[in-house]
Specification:
The structure holds two protein chains of two kinds. By secondary structure, chain A is of the alpha+beta class. Chain A has two domains: 239 residues, Alpha-Beta Plaits (2-Layer Sandwich); 48 residues, no CATH class. Chain A is 29% helix and 16% strand. Chain A starts with 24 loop residues before the first strand and ends with a helix. Chain B has a three-stranded antiparallel beta sheet with strand order 1-2-3. In chain B, helix 1 packs antiparallel against helix 2, helix 5 packs antiparallel against helix 7 and helix 9 crosses helix 10. The model of chain B has no long low-confidence stretch (mean pLDDT 96). By secondary structure, chain B is mainly α. Classes of the chains: A alpha+beta, B mainly alpha. At the A-B interface, helix 3, helix 7, helix 8 and helix 9 of A face helix 1, helix 2, helix 7, helix 9 and helix 10 of B. Bound molecules: protoporphyrin IX containing FE and iron/sulfur cluster (3 copies). The site of one iron/sulfur cluster has 14 residues of chain A, from helix 1 and helix 5.
Chain lengths: 315, 221
């Protein structure tokens, strides 16, 4: 018989107690910041998909903590409700009915969708408003709504399709990793609410260790490809998944296999800016230099005389 | 002689000096609405283009306002430029002498008009500016709508939006460069700006820079 021992999440550590402030920023949109004198311990939320029962308690906890309400909807014949993230729903359970081709078993895959808190956040890279997106030294990526201009560039920058722009105040919203709770030494609301401890929170190192145990357990139960989702293409993430089929993340409602900031976004935010500014500057300078070198192109008295002759002939 | 590039309202007034009507009041108004829109678009767009110019959002009442207003000015620009296009496209068709003019760009830049072929209402350089503006404004409005997420977010995929914003930024840089050339040429070639303020140029200016057009106007009388 497999090992059914309950693997409890680690107790919240004193290590992660922080007061998040401007002095803790490692990245700030459309700005350069000097690294903080003392970096915080990187944190992470670990979502064990194999333990999730789809109860949606975390969704409710999230709405509660963030003081959001969503309108009552209609049943569209699926557990997916709302079907996707909204400016008020920072997390949504995505249900997939998947037939395992090897075992012919129907597997119900339930993934908690939301911001991954990328180490290299595409949203922050794309954002044109100084300080509207920040990353703290513990890894949390947060939106500062006072500075957001609602342009939607973060939507284009994000490899996970996470930010949503509110039609009410035209600002971008997403999971904060409960930065306001973490700042006072608490874990995220969703992690607190989860009845099966599928969501746990701690330092990133602790979470990786905890994941290792879970993966061992899953492997012993026949999930040979069980593994951790901490995609290196975005420098790793501060929200990680334990997947029973880590070799094919796409089956979990299109979780990208190798996410990275789109090369189109890299080109837009990289070369285009430098080459563009250089080109505009060059045109202006060439104009100035040309004027200094050749002088004004003036109409001469002979030109006027010629015109008078031409029109005079016809008079 | 064909009068393909004489526009309605163009007229010669003999005298000392000769004066030539180049743009009607309607054309000038149309031009200045277009010009102001383009400048406002460049300023509001560049504010979002690079953090070093983000302060330009102050001109429009802050970031949210800049983001909101820019695409609307784009619509004004498009409609207004369409008016200019209808007025000017015929006179901007490519002619045999334009190739020669282009081949002698050295003389153009040096200000040696005596070595250049006689040209009509527009020279090859002005025609290039005209067609570049036409194409770029089309590219800008199409790519602009694809990233106008406040109203049209659901009509394009995120990947299409990524291409659109890249193309929009590149087209914007290009049109600003074209605009610099256009404005510089108007300043360098003295006597040109009057065409768009008073609507008139002197006969000498027309003789020097657009002799074929002047001859056509005179022969038309
Ligand atoms: C013709 C219609 C146009 C439309 C509908 C349009 C629309 C847009 C939209 C929706 C944005 C995203 C920011 C926002 O939501 O305000 C944008 C950005 C921008 N636009 Fe336009 N635009 C137009 C014309 C122009 C023109 C003529 C220029 C240049 C003179 C220009 C320069 C820019 C620049 C530089 C950006 C920032 C791109 C970046 O962040 O890299 N736009 N435009
Ligand atoms: S919508 Fe707000 S957060 Fe997103 S890129 Fe624009 S300014 Fe930044
Ligand atoms: S998942 Fe998207 S929104 Fe979240 S940090 Fe990464 S890029 Fe930003
Ligand atoms: S971490 Fe907080 S904000 Fe993010 S999904 Fe969980 S409860 Fe919501």
């Amino acid at each position: 018989m497999a090992n059914f021992e309950f693997v409890l999440p680690p107790a919240p550590t004193k290590d992660i107690k922080v007061g998040l402030g401007d002095g803790d920023l490692v990245k700030r949109s459309a700005s350069t910041v000097s690294p903080p004198a003392k970096a915080l311990t990187p944190v992470a939320k670990l979502i064990d998909v194999s333990k999730c029962i789809g109860c949606k308690a975390c969704e409710v906890a999230c709405l509660e903590w963030n003081d959001k309400r969503t309108p009552v909807g209609v049943n569209v014949g699926s557990y997916d409700f709302p079907p996707d993230l909204t400016p008020d729903m920072f997390t949504v359970m995505k249900f997939t009915e998947w037939v395992n081709p090897e075992t012919k078993n129907l597997e119900w895959l339930i993934r908690k969708d939301g911001c991954m808190h990328c180490e290299d956040p595409g949203c922050l890279k794309a954002c044109p408003a100084p300080g509207a997106i920040v990353q703290y030294s513990n890894g949390i990526v947060d939106f500062d709504h006072d500075k957001c201009i609602g342009c939607g560039y973060c939507v284009k920058g994000c490899p996970f399709n996470i930010p949503r722009i509110s039609e009410v105040d035209h600002k971008a919203y997403k999971c904060t990793l409960c930065s306001d709770r973490v700042a006072v030494g608490q874990g995220p609301a969703c992690a607190h609410a989860c009845p099966t401890h599928a969501i746990v929170f701690g330092t990133k190192d602790e979470m990786k260790k905890h994941a290792d145990d879970r993966i061992k357990d899953l492997k012993s139960r026949g999930f040979a490809n069980a593994g951790l989702y901490d995609p290196p293409g975005v420098g790793g993430t501060h929200v990680m998944y334990v997947l029973h089929h880590a070799d094919q993340p796409q089956i979990y409602a299109n979780l990208p296999k190798d996410p990275r900031i789109s090369p189109i976004v890299e080109l837009w935010k990289g070369m285009t800016k430098y080459a563009g500014l250089a080109a505009m500057g060059a045109f202006a300078v060439i104009g100035l230099v040309h004027h200094v070198v050749t002088g004004a192109n003036r109409v001469s008295p002979e030109d006027e005389a010629n015109a008078e002759k031409l029109t005079g002939d016809r008079r | 002689m064909t009068t393909y590039d004489v526009e309605s309202g163009d007229q010669v007034h003999p005298g000392q000096p000769v004066t030539v009507d180049r743009y009607t009041a309607g054309a000038r108004l149309n031009h200045w609405i277009t010009a102001i829109s383009l400048v406002l678009l460049a300023l509001s767009g560049l504010a979002l283009f690079t953090p070093s110019l983000y302060f330009l959002t102050g001109l429009f009442g802050g970031g949210q306002w800049t983001r909101t207003i820019h695409p609307w000015i784009g619509v004004v620009l498009f409609v207004s430029f369409f008016g200019l296009f209808v007025r000017f496209w015929r006179a901007n068709l490519w002619k045999a002498e334009d190739g020669t003019w282009m081949a002698r760009l050295r003389d153009v830049i040096g200000g040696h008009e005596e070595n250049l072929p006689e040209v009509g209402k527009y020279n090859a350089g002005q025609k290039v500016v005209f067609w570049a503006m036409s194409i770029l404004i089309l590219v800008l409005i199409v790519s602009g709508f694809a990233i106008w997420d406040q109203y049209f977010a659901q009509y394009t995929t995120i990947d299409q939006k990524r291409w659109a914003v890249l193309i929009h930024a590149m087209a914007a840089v290009t049109i600003i460069c074209v605009w610099i050339v256009h404005v510089y040429a108007a300043i360098w070639v003295r006597g040109t700006i009057g065409a768009m303020t008073k609507g008139q140029v002197t006969g000498g200016w027309a003789w020097r820079h657009h002799r074929k057009w002047l001859r056509e106007l005179v022969s038309k009388k």
